[in-house]
Write a structure and sequence with these properties.
The complex is a heterodimer of chains A (421) and B (403). With 421 residues, chain A is an alpha/beta fold. Chain A folds into two domains: 250 residues, 3-Layer(aba) Sandwich (Peroxisomal Thiolase, Chain A, domain 1); 156 residues, Peroxisomal Thiolase, Chain A, domain 1 (3-Layer(aba) Sandwich), CATH 3.40.47. In chain A, 33% of the residues lie in helices and 20% in strands. Chain A contains 14 helices and 17 strands. Chain A has a ten-stranded mixed β-sheet with strand order 7-6-8-10-1-11-17-16-12-13, with helices on both faces. In chain A, strands 3-4-9 form a three-stranded mixed β-sheet. In chain A, helix 10 packs across helix 11. Chain A is globular, with a radius of gyration of 20 Å. The two termini of chain A are 15 Å apart. Chain B has 403 residues and is an alpha/beta fold. Chain B has two domains: 242 residues, 3-Layer(aba) Sandwich (Peroxisomal Thiolase, Chain A, domain 1), CATH 3.40.47; 145 residues, 3-Layer(aba) Sandwich (Peroxisomal Thiolase, Chain A, domain 1), CATH 3.40.47.10. Helices cover 32% and strands 20% of the residues of chain B. Chain B is built from twelve helices and 15 strands. Chain B is globular, with a radius of gyration of 20 Å. Chain B starts with a strand and ends with a strand. The chains are: A alpha/beta (421), B alpha/beta (403). At the A-B interface, helix 4, helix 5, helix 6, strand 7 and helix 7 of A face helix 4, helix 5, helix 6, strand 5 and helix 7 of B.
Chain lengths: 421, 403
């Protein structure tokens, strides 16, 4: 055993068309999936924009029973997990099942179903003492976000360690970090790991309205999310899932698997300061980046591309730009930094995995996806944000970062198979 | 890898709002189960629960912080303070990046969430409060504890229903092995709002008996489901070397072994994964079954699940060969807080050399288990095994051993 973990399969259900390749084509072409919300009537809300998945669970092959018992978040995860497994060529069976684990990142659970079922049992908010005669039998699976890991475990026949990692908006990175830990310590040979979230529904939209964190460019939703641009005015809520097959390196080699990249380093840090606030000096994210590089034994100067958190809020963009300068020094000015949230929005607990998918594909395809909508330079944000157009580049080391409520900051370092040796 | 040990324990439980009062009640067999008082439960088929009583959040947090948090997090404030004091751990003596918080969660801040959903649908989006976004999500408790105690290291949140409370101890052990010096771990839960209860009712496993002393009787022939409870435990975890170097007041136990498994999917025809979790945890600890002096069972209270657990225990240890304790008969199942509370019971059992009992239950002889019932049992204890199963197929086992 090498104690090294590599990504050998990728499945994606991102805003816009479903599937890994349609996702990659969209972000490389700089097209955006941000639109007026269609999942409910958004007219009473301050922000009425979302990045929705064009997703039809029946068309994607989910069974009627799977559709009936799962929330939209679970359906995304099932489709992404199956795509990842097929992509990897790994075949679970009764003999290896106990060596397959699952870690699924998530931020807000089965939020849509929890809200829909609440409306029914409370008679649309009229009753505090809600009526159990209207409860759906799968309600318990909605309240327990752990059901998301259960669904994936069933789908991929996993019988090793399984859990949901729920560290808010860093969960999509942390779930991958957790999987890598389990592979390194020998608790599993294969981890089906990633994240899912489907938050575009009134209660979550209300939360971001109240915090005034979401974009109000309701008349121009296609260009609403403008990370690092001087005219940014907030995040756009997204949804979706990305799931990976992550394997111990020797295990992957033995079966001749194609390797997208190694997950070479990972770190999580907290700001211990504020549930929603960030220091402008970039300290906490900078610390996570430095710790992830240390774990990977990689120097800042070796980084070829930063896949940014880039949520499109002034607070984040400032913090993040400062974090790159703190942790990478002058090198921060020399490398491309781009945010795919400009195109797919911010899907809370799952975006970290969707961004890892983008980063792994960037290494695989030798292409840096752009920051769509970036037009006007902000004096506080003076790095190379890859405006609007993708770039070809040989990428050996890619950094992807996340930041979220609770004060959590995470960073992951992916390296090209060329470096594995 | 230096050994990870538990040096501080904080508790908020239905049968005691702090560690020592809960432990005394547990040894005395005093149950915290009663008819639900927080709201009128008479219209619900399940009316008995383990509510935390005698707990005043104002003793543990400012009015502002109380308004920004669900009860699940308020219980964690109290338990964390108690655990840090118990460990005599001065967080200021450590660099903030060397401290971390890793808690389990299960259903989020359900009561807080129900109130805000009610505002949304009865008054409109503008009525939703600014704290909804930070109070109800699963990461709320870890985030708040990290801020409260200036713990800025590798924090985390795991959700595997009841099993998650053991998974977080393993994660604490992992981050300690990589250099973090102190981890606050464990979990607390507060699932008892009307919507929270209805969500739980839907799993079909809740007891519908209305007598508090008959509602939750795991391993009994009359077992008919479980009752929900709230609260949990927060634990201070650090390395054995550090605990000795700083002369910690006590080292309750080593986290000697751990494993997690997931049940085969329905229709596989293969047995559930609990037995494998036990065997792997023992192997991780380098111990044999005969080394285990007491098992704190998951004790689901659902006949088929009780049967499966008894079979797993008997297959590993032999029928009736190890004392089995089910103190959750006095609290109900606390979800994310349940396994940490069982870990608290296990380490205090090791401290006091006494096995806490299960109450109200008479183990069905068909299970062939030595369940300690009604009165605590004195015993020479060095090693305890704690089991937890999470709805859907999660299994976890932790081996705790006196240092």
């Amino acid at each position: 055993m090498t104690g090294r973990a590599v990504i050998t399969g990728i499945g994606v259900v991102a805003p816009g068309p479903t599937g890994r390749e349609p996702f990659w084509e969209m972000i490389v072409e700089g097209r955006t999936a941000t639109r007026g919300i269609t999942l409910f009537d958004p007219s009473p809300f301050r922000s009425r924009i979302g990045a929705e998945c064009d997703f039809d669970p029946e068309r994607e092959g989910l069974s009627y029973q799977e559709i009936r018992r799962t929330d939209r978040a679970g359906q995304f995860a099932l489709v992404a997990a199956r795509e990842a497994l097929a992509d990897s060529g790994f075949e679970p069976d009764d003999r290896n099942a106990h060596r397959i684990g699952v870690s699924i990142g998530n931020g807000v659970g089965n939020a849509i179903s929890m809200e829909q079922e609440y409306r029914t049992v409370s008679d649309n908010g009229r009753q505090w003492l809600v009526d159990p005669s209207y409860m759906k039998p799968h309600l318990y699976s909605y309240v327990m976000s752990s059901s998301l890991a259960k669904e994936v475990a069933w789908a991929v026949c996993a019988e090793g360690p399984a859990t949901v990692v729920s560290s808010g908006c860093c969960a999509g990175i942390d779930a991958v970090g957790y999987a890598v830990d389990l592979i390194r310590e020998g608790s599993a040979d294969v981890m089906v790991a990633g994240a899912t979230d489907a938050p575009i529904y009134p209660i979550t939209v209300s939360c971001f309205d109240t915090l005034r964190a979401s974009s109000t460019s309701n008349d121009d939703p296609e260009h609403a999310c403008r990370p690092f641009d001087r005219r940014r005015n907030g995040l756009v809520l997204g949804e979706g899932s990305a799931v990976f097959v992550i394997e111990e390196l020797e295990h992957a080699r033995r079966r001749g698997a194609r390797v997208y990249c190694e997950v070479a380093g990972y770190a999580a840090r907290a700001n211990g300061y504020h549930m929603t606030g960030l220091r402008p000096d970039g300290r906490e994210m900078g610390e996570a980046i430095t710790a992830a590089l240390d774990e990977a034994r990689i120097n800042p100067e070796e980084i070829d591309y930063c896949n940014a958190h880039g949520s499109g809020t002034r607070q984040n963009d400032r913090h993040e730009t400062a974090a790159y300068k703190r942790s990478l020094g002058e090198h921060a000015y020399r490398i491309p930094v781009s945010s795919i949230k400009s195109m797919v929005g911010h899907s809370l607990g799952s975006i970290g995995s969707i961004e890892i998918a983008a980063s792994a594909l960037a290494i695989d395809r030798g292409t840096v996806p752009p920051t769509a909508n970036y037009e006007e330079r902000d004096p506080e944000c003076d790095l190379d944000y890859v405006p609007r157009t993708a770039r070809e580049a040989e990428l050996d080391v890619v950094l992807s970062v996340g930041s979220g409520f609770g004060g959590f900051q995470s960073a992951v370092v992916l390296t090209s198979p060329r470096r594995i040796g | 890898m230096t050994a990870s040990v538990i040096t501080g324990v904080g508790v908020v439980a239905p049968n005691g709002p702090d560690r020592e009062s809960w432990w005394q009640a547990t040894l005395d067999g005093k149950s915290g189960l009663d008819t639900i008082s927080r709201f009128d439960a008479s219209r619900y088929p399940t009316r008995v629960a383990g509510e935390v009583t005698g707990f005043d959040p104002a003793e543990h947090a400012s009015a502002r912080l109380i308004s920004e948090t669900d009860a699940m997090t308020q219980y964690a404030f109290a338990a964390a303070d108690e655990a840090l004091a118990d460990a005599s751990l001065d967080t200021d003596a450590f660099a903030d990046l060397d401290l971390a918080v890793i808690t389990a969660n299960s259903s989020g801040g359900v009561e807080f969430g129900q109130r805000e959903l009610q505002k949304l649908y009865s008054e409109g989006p503008q009525a939703v409060g600014a704290y909804m976004s930070i109070a109800w999500f699963y990461a709320a408790t870890t985030g708040q504890l990290s801020i409260r105690h200036g713990m800025r290291g590798p924090c985390g949140v795991l959700c595997s229903e009841q099993a998650g409370g053991l998974d977080v101890l393993a994660q604490a052990r992992r981050v300690l092995a990589r250099g973090t010096r102190v981890v606050l771990s464990g979990g607390t839960d507060a699932s008892l709002s009307p919507y929270g209860l209805v969500c739980q009712l839907s799993n079909g496993r809740l007891s519908e008996r209305h007598r508090p002393d008959r509602a939750f009787v795991p391993f009994d022939r009359e077992a008919s489901g479980y009752v929900p409870g709230e609260g949990g435990a927060i634990l201070v975890v650090e390395s054995l070397d550090q605990a000795r170097a700083r002369s910690a007041p006590q080292v309750y136990a080593l986290i000697a072994g751990y494993a997690a498994t997931f049940d085969p999917r329905p229709g596989s025809g293969r047995p559930p994964g609990l037995r494998r979790a036990i065997e792997l945890a023992l192997a991780d600890a380098g111990l044999r079954p005969a080394d285990v002096d007491v098992v704190l069972a998951d004790g689901h209270g659902v006949p088929e699940l009780d049967r499966q657990e008894a079979e797993a225990i008997n297959t590993v240890f032999g029928p009736g060969s190890v004392p089995v304790s089910v103190p959750k008969t006095m609290t109900g199942r606390l979800y994310a807080g349940g396994a940490p509370l069982d870990v608290a019971a296990a380490v205090l059992a090791l401290r006091d050399q006494i096995i806490p009992p299960a109450v109200n239950t008479a183990a069905d002889p068909a299970h062939r288990l030595d369940v300690v019932t009604d009165r605590p049992r004195r015993a020479a204890l060095r090693t305890a095994l704690v089991l937890a199963r999470g709805y859907g197929g999660f299994n976890a086992a932790v081996v705790l051993r006196s240092a």
